[in-house]
Design a protein that fits this description.
Blueprint: E1 5-9, E2 17-23, E3 29-34, H1 35-38, E4 44-47, E5 56-62, E6 78-81, E7 84-85, H2 91-113, E8 142-147, E9 157-162, E10 170-179, E11 184-190, E12 200-206, H3 209-214, E13 224-228, E14 235-243, H4 254-259, H5 264-271, E15 277-280
Parallel strand pairs: 12-13
Antiparallel strand pairs: 1-4, 1-6, 2-3, 2-5, 6-7, 8-14, 9-12, 9-15, 10-11, 10-14
Length: 281
Amino acid sequence: MSYPPTLIGSFPKWARYAALTAYGDDGMPFASVNMADKGVGRTFTTSFTSTESDFVVLARVYRSKSHPASLTQAEKFAVTVDGEPWTTASEIKARLYGKALEWPIQYAVGHALAKQMTSERDMQMFRPADASLPGVFPNEDARYMITYPSLGGGKCAVFHGRVPEAASGREFYGFMAVEMKTTATVASVSDEDLGGWGRVYTVFVCRDEANARSAGYDSAEASHHLLLAGDVTVPGVILRDLNTAPDQGLKATDEWAARGQVAPEQCQSVLGEAYPIMSVR
């Protein structure tokens, strides 16, 4: 949008996490407000301004497994520009527009991350350098670790760790199996799926379930969780750690990430047992 928009609305009471984030044309955030700032169920007005001629505002809402529904029309933010209300697209149109934009956006994001692909295959999870993030539209409150398991010859990448303990400002922790050529998510698991805060887990990332069973996966074991990568060309695994509190979780590595890639050992020193140790089986 090319004019300062004003947004009026509230973050839903059922949301695990919600935020409005403004991005410049480099795909990097320059302003954000979240439910820790504004609360939930309370109407507020906010606006974003930029020296750039064009920017975009994304509304994010994380929902729990007990609330599978999307936002209702009444729960969406109203937008005005120069005092004139903008008409909100219908759900059907929004989905169609999103589908049309899906491939070019995924291609651009995948291209932005391609420089990270020089990292060694099957290495422990690391945090990419901030310099690699333009074009990726990262969440202002989330931090990410990544690794590139080869999954060749029927092998699986197996991650063992512990979900962080519950804490004020700790909003989300979870894994995504992705196609790194486009960053499209093919499977995911959240802290809720992993058993909740403080629970020990083993996550198997495999091409298929037969490979998983060969690697030790047991569907009857509550701490075992399976992410099927299928036939993705370039498999990747991303851990997302979301905190609204400063210096919590991977946010404590921000100074390192500003200078370059954050090594696995540095990430582990911050996360402790919440750092997932990977083995290839």
